[in-house]
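Why do we care about 3D structure at all? Because function follows from shape, and shape follows, mostly, from sequence. That is the central idea of this module. The next example makes it concrete: a single protein chain, its amino acid sequence, and then its structure expressed as tokens.
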Amino acid sequence: MQREIYARYQDQVVEVLFDEKVKKRWKGRTPTNKLVFVEAEQDLLGKVLPVNITWTGPWSMRGELVNPRA
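And the structure:
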């Protein structure tokens, strides 16, 4: 069931609020509190940015910044 909920986000662009960096990935949440990870070199702390979701799992998602120069 949880996997199906997250699968709806596949290939969608969603706004993500980033709150911390875990290893090489930034961790953030969508407005509906879904967990998203993004690999980025720049400081994303506290920023709300559009992310294209590229992978979904049962508990989290991975994506890429729509505008990586943010």
